[in-house]
Amino acid sequence: MQGRMQDWPLTVDRIIDHAKSWHGDREIVSRSVEGPMMRTTYAQVHARAKRVSNVLRGLNIQPGDRVATLAWNTARHIEAWYGIMGMGAVCHTLNPRLFSEQLVYIINHAEDKVIFTDLTFLPILAGIRDQIPTVQHIIVFTDDAHMTAGLPGAHSYESLLSQVSEDAVWGGFDENSPAGLCYTSGTTGNPKGVLYSHRSNFLHTLVTMGADVLGIGATDTVLPVVPMFHANAWGVAFSAPAVGAKLVMPGAKLDGASIHELLESEQVTFSAAVPTVWQMLLTHLRDTNGTLNSLKRVVIGGSAVPEAIVRAFRDEYGVAVTHAWGMTETSPLGTQATPNHKIAAMDDEAQLRFQLKQGRPPLGIDLRLTNDEGQDLPRDGHTFGKLLVKGPFVVGEYFKGDGGHILDDQGFFDTGDVATLDEHGFMQITDRAKDVIKSGGEWISTIEIENIAAGHPKAELAAVIGMAHPKWDERPLLLVKLRPGQEATKEEFLQFLEGKIAKWWMPDDVVFVDDIPLGATGKIDKKLIRTRMADYVLPTAAAAAASTIALAAPPEPKIYAPEPEAPAEPEVHAHAEPAPQEDHAGWSPAARPTQEESYSGLTVLTPTLDDAPAVEAQAEAIAPFPAEPASETRASAIPAPEVHAPLTFGSPSDEEPFGAPLVPRRTKTRKGDGFAGFYLNLATLVALTPALMVGAGMLGTRYGLMDWKTGLGVIALEWAPKVTMIAVAAGLLGIIIALFAGFGRYWARALMVLILCGATFGGYLWARQAQITNPPINDVSTDWTMPLTFSQKMMRERGPEAIMVEADPMRPMDSFAYAGRRIADINAETCAEARPLVLAQAPGQAYAQAKAAVEQAGLALVTDDPATGRIEATGRSLAFGLKNDVVVRVLPAPQGSRIDVRAIGRVPVSDLGANCARVTELIGAMRS
Ligand code: AMP
């Protein structure tokens, strides 16, 4: 017998149907990628989503086909979601922050047929278009007018929508049909797909609507900063229409100032984001004395929320914080730290201890804590164990069965997180299983130490990793990124931790870094930190090794020693040239850093080594182009060349300087002298051509004979590399001809061709490498929280052709690897020296010093205004004579004064590090 209720499949199209019928005039406001704010309603979104379904049907998309989106949070993205899912296709959200190779893998694995995207991400798609054969159509969320920079063959969304009707049938399929697909970040192995069903999304929506979960209602205005491409924006794009809340979609601008502007202008009451976003907002609020007049509650998850953030929201801005935990595999919300009746009865400080935990499961989620043997562990609040989870919106199997059987015998999924459970059922994540530190058989929670350290007033971000230790296996190392302009000692941080964590949890060392890398989903990328720190040795480990192993001296403590080129016998080096090292931490060679990774961004500011040779060793070790391995190593690796007499065309007597040939002689009689000589002369000329072209481009642009597009763009960047290839081929052919035609006679010219080829090719490789290693930007600033802008006068100087001077642009030109990222973040990673300068002088004096530095650098002054502390100047590059502009701002600061510098080019090509060099040079000169 079955119940006698109506059959009403739980499919997500019903959510937007409901929003249209009962909250049709409720607004969705979006910051469009093109710039202006766009306003629409649930009724309009519903109608346009139907058009999306018709467009897809017209493109022959069938139920079950995968249709991807690579897009920011906007109303158009919501329309596409509902249009795709409503007709039974699967909405596959792509995370633009993944590397291109990962995107290619994911798109091919999912066999996506269509991709909806934003203008911002066209460079990414252009770079991978020929590697994603299943994709038949790319639809750009824009209108025809903005399609100028489009990818060949891409359609404009608005134009497609205008060609179809808004009559489309939705639903009518099983509620267990697939609705969405999202790949995990893939920290181990390839990314795996989580295939959500309509039913699981529907149930997740009902659960998140609960008062103790997201708890939003029809009177709320909701701003999901958390992207729709990461774990479904925590379900907000379903729950907001489900309750009829107003939605505010932030588009591409996620910096503190832009979010603050939206919070205030749209009177947002509820928002959700990862801690780093909130940190940026709080920094912005402090810097600008900003206030939050409507915001009532924020949900924070994705990584553990630092206490300082909860306190700042609560005490300074009167905003309640709900800490939540979840993962792609749990749709994503798994727990939330809203109080139960016992906790609610506690005082604020006691409640805070629970608020900082990840919280308790709502109906629909069941948790287990087990040891490695699968036995349940006590809910005592301090026993660590594996966190397992089960429920109707928890993954049962990855897409296409990847990873095999993933549930235990009771149907629980192992989250890969290590956690505790307390007597109130509050779960606390202590680590990812692979990050937890095992010290002397006991576990140390890196997250807990990080959270406390991040609460230090001078800290912006903190990360803890386990470093190899001969006695304890692993010991904690604390990495700290200081707030701009701050300086600190490691003792300050150790003292700050004292009493807040167990003594034996105390980090063995503190290292100050300019950047703590975040992964594609905004979490601290410990894998990258570990590879970058692979050659670092804790001072305590070196000491322990020295006292326990008398035979082999411990390796030199080093930071960022480059990867050795060829593995060889481990040996102790007097100084750290890039010679083979022991893998101290025991990571597999594959996990060791590439040279590029080793040096990108994570610059150690305070060396932990005090002996001069070791510091010298580091300096050598971080040279951008490490020396070749020792020649002995090479010699043993490469067999000694055999001596061959040359093949010749001529007679033995005049063509055999080294005696009888050891290889069969060619019997051809034709003398090749004339031709060989002529050819070698020609090859010499051809080998010189690329250099001549670049030179001509440089001089031509510099002296105004051609514009930069011709001199730099066409001649130097487009033609010269192609000619380089021809030159190298011609050169190699010349060598072969010389060998055959009589090496004795032609060796000098052949050698010349060889050297020129080598130099040309070397130059080409250098230029390519410089393009790869330098981020494709031409804008470097020491401050993006209060961006430095140019005066009208300077803007006139720059002229209408010059690139925009934006406040923290999101999209570096022609960027594949960096597309969609904030220039602020890229600056922090790639130009560590671009940091504000704090001087103990009065502002007037600091201004004079700054102006002297600008003049000394040979820049032409445009603005010299001591009253506002603004200096503007222009410089010209030596080679092409390209102009770049500099603005310097001197402001009073508690310590005396603070100087910020921004350097920005005028043409939209990568500056190959020139602006970073300019800022570094100026800051250096102002300091001295
Ligand atoms: P993802 O699937 O990319 O969303 O990552 C899920 C993982 O993020 C979880 O397994 C946790 O390790 C981590 N995570 C999510 N929320 C939190 C939180 N509130 N505190 C600590 N870690 C979290």
Task: Describe the 3D structure.
- The protein is globular and about 100 Å long.
- 35% of the residues lie in helices and 18% in strands.
Write the layout of secondary structure elements.
Elements: H1 13-23, E1 27-31, E2 37-41, H2 42-58, E3 66-70, H3 75-86, E4 90-93, H4 100-110, E5 114-117, H5 122-128, E6 137-140, E7 155-156, H6 157-162, E8 178-183, E9 193-197, H7 198-208, E10 221-224, H8 236-243, E11 246-249, H9 256-265, E12 270-273, H10 275-288, E13 297-300, H11 307-317, E14 320-326, E15 333-336, H12 341-344, H13 348-355, E16 366-370, E17 385-390, E18 413-421, E19 427-432, E20 437-439, E21 442-444, H14 446-454, E22 459-469, E23 473-482, H15 490-497, E24 509-512, H16 526-532, H17 539-548, H18 595-599, H19 612-621, H20 631-637, H21 652-655, H22 673-702, H23 708-773, E25 779-781, H24 792-798, H25 823-830, E26 837-839, H26 843-856, E27 860-865, E28 870-876, E29 883-893, E30 896-905, H27 914-927
Parallel strand pairs: 1-11, 3-4, 3-5, 4-8, 5-6, 6-7, 10-11, 10-12, 12-13, 13-14, 23-24
Antiparallel strand pairs: 1-2, 8-9, 14-15, 16-17, 17-18, 18-19, 20-21, 22-23, 25-30, 26-30, 27-28, 28-29, 29-30
Helix pairs in contact: 1-2, 1-8, 2-3, 7-8, 9-10, 22-23, 26-27
This protein binds adenosine monophosphate.
Adenosine monophosphate binds next to β14, β18 and β19.
